[in-house]
């Protein structure tokens, strides 16, 4: 169990989807923090808005108030233009680092832990986005190699949210980073993969965390709209399904001296809001 180890404990939660996802996180996360006392909490919130696209200041502030250390995002971070100013101001709100540098925000944060037995320890969180079946932005592998090399001069405890669509790309990325980072967690596709593991050189990995969102949905949205879109080929816009939601994520325990992961444990809680 993660709790039995005297190592750094990091908790990662998958994409928070709409009101149902926010409510579930609001209910479960304080309990997790109180009971299991993670040193680091990272949540992807690019779908936290009511319509499931982007997030707002109020959602970011709510997550930070719950005890979330870093909020990561992905391609939907640009949906709400009012977030641009916040991206510039808040170093704990990340957007994928391999977007053009002229865009607001940053994709990497290095900071000292603020609670627990490892208080004062420096950790890094990096946000990158894949390219297969997504926007043709800069190569996340090359960007990752460069940023990780620079970051390792300051800390070996490096965690990456790899926001990507294609599963072969998402599986390959942790292997490319193995031996240089503590963990790589995949986000974006909203369906949890059952492959949480530690690679040979110490990198924890899970291809996709799954989502914090509606239980009886299609990746967070109304199933009837997904069916109709398939039957008609009409590009109907998704709508977040209102109803019970679950919380999915991953625990990683890491050796603070080597930066290597030593334990991983998948998380699934709920449903909340029955």
Please tally the β strands and state the result.
13
CATH fold descriptor = Purple Acid Phosphatase, chain A, domain 2
The first-level CATH class name: Alpha Beta
Oligomer state of the chains in this structure: single chain
* CATH 4th-level superfamily: Metallo-dependent phosphatases
CATH architect. name = 4-Layer Sandwich
Question: What layout of secondary structure does this protein have?
Answer:
Blueprint: E1 8-13, E2 15-16, H1 18-36, E3 40-44, H2 57-66, E4 70-72, H3 84-89, E5 108-112, E6 122-129, H4 140-151, E7 158-163, H5 167-177, E8 183-187, E9 197-198, E10 204-206, E11 211-214, H6 223-232, E12 245-254, E13 261-272
Parallel strand pairs: 1-3, 2-11, 3-4, 6-7, 7-8, 8-10
Antiparallel strand pairs: 1-12, 5-6, 9-10, 11-12, 12-13
Helix pairs in contact: 1-2
What would you say about this model in short?
With 274 residues, the protein is α/β, with parallel strands linked by helices.
Account of the protein in words:
- This protein has 274 residues and is α/β, with parallel strands linked by helices.
- It has one domain: 4-Layer Sandwich (Purple Acid Phosphatase, chain A, domain 2), CATH 3.60.21.
- The chain has 6 helices and 13 strands.
- Strands 1, 2, 3, 4, 11, 12 and 13 form a 7-stranded mixed sheet that branches. A 6-stranded mixed sheet has the order 5-6-7-8-10-9, with helices on one face.
- Helix 4 links the parallel strand 6 and strand 7.
- Helix 1 (18-36) packs parallel to helix 2.
- The longest helix has 19 residues, at 18-36.
Defining key terms:
alpha/beta, Purple Acid Phosphatase, chain A, domain 2, 274 residues
């Amino acid at each position: 169990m993660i709790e039995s180890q005297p190592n750094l404990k990091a908790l990662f939660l998958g994409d928070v989807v709409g009101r149902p996802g926010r409510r579930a996180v609001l209910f479960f996360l304080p309990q997790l923090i109180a009971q299991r006392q993670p040193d680091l909490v990272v949540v992807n919130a690019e779908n936290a808005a009511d319509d499931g696209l982007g997030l707002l200041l109020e959602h970011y502030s709510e997550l930070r108030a719950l005890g979330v250390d870093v909020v990561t995002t992905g391609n939907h971070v640009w949906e709400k233009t009012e977030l641009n100013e916040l991206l510039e101001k808040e170093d704990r709100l990340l957007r994928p680092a391999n977007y053009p540098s002229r865009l607001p925000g940053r994709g990497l944060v290095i900071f000292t832990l603020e609670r627990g037995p490892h208080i004062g320890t420096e950790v890094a969180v990096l946000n990158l986005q894949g390219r297969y079946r997504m926007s043709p932005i800069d190569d996340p592998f090359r960007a990752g190699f460069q940023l990780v090399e620079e970051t390792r001069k300051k800390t070996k405890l490096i965690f990456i949210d790899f926001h990507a669509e294609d599963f072969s790309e998402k599986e390959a990325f942790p292997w490319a980073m193995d031996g240089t980072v503590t963990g790589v967690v995949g986000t974006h596709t909203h369906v949890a993969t059952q492959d949480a593991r530690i690679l040979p050189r110490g990198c924890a990995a899970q291809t996709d965390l799954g989502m914090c969102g509606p239980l009886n949905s299609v990746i967070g949205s109304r199933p009837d709209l997904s069916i109709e879109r398939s039957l008609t080929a009409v590009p109907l816009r998704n709508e977040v399904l209102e109803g019970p939601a679950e919380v999915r994520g991953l625990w990683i325990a890491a050796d603070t001296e080597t930066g290597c992961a030593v334990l991983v444990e998948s998380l699934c809680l709920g449903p909340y809001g029955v």
